[in-house]
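Researcher: Here's a chain I'd like modeled. Treat it as a single chain, no partners, no ligands.
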Amino acid sequence: MLTIKAEQREITGKKVSNLRKQGKIPAVVYGAGEKSVLLQVIGKDFEKVFREAGESTLVELEIGQDRRNVLIHEIDFDPIKDTPRHVDFLAVRMDKPIRAKVHVVFEGESGAVKNLGGVLVKVTHELEIEALPKDLPHEIRVDIAVLGNLGEKLVAGGLKLPAGVKLVGGKEDVLVLVEAPKSEEELKAEEAAPSLETIEVVSKKKEKEEEAVEAIPKAEKAETPKEAKKEGK
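Model: Modeled as a single isolated chain. Structure tokens:
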């Protein structure tokens, strides 16, 4: 089992930015009927484990002499650097089934795409499953080689899941399908159609102009609203 070393954390609020400057990530662990504990983990160590475990593989959290079986439950990423800013660990009981979302990995080659020029459409990229923590798979692999004809599809209920793993959700949910190639007429029609992005931009511009016109007679009475500051984790 992968292991992440953590230390209990006293620093909270805006002061956690100092931890990040030191290469550490503020974190918290909760669940399994135990009291939540504020933690800090070394950024490089966490990212290495996360690349291997993802959010559906059981990890051992080492807090001094304490050991807890956890899942990496939620991560807050920096919007610019795309690095973890805060981590939630979910403690689990080994004897109790839990639900988790697992990534779907498509493998193989579809004959309908290779030989008939079909277009492969991946509809689902993760599945919700239920299993004991020890049985949670890191990912679910789907073989698309069985898609030999245009219009064929694979649904969630047709998957062969690992032992002890149960599907949560609709069995008829489509995972992947093969569409027929579009004709020249259809492609030309798509090129001629107006862009939704352009329509949205024009709409926003018009809306702002209308707001500006309405605000002119009220300019003397207008007050600047105070923006609420959202405190970081």
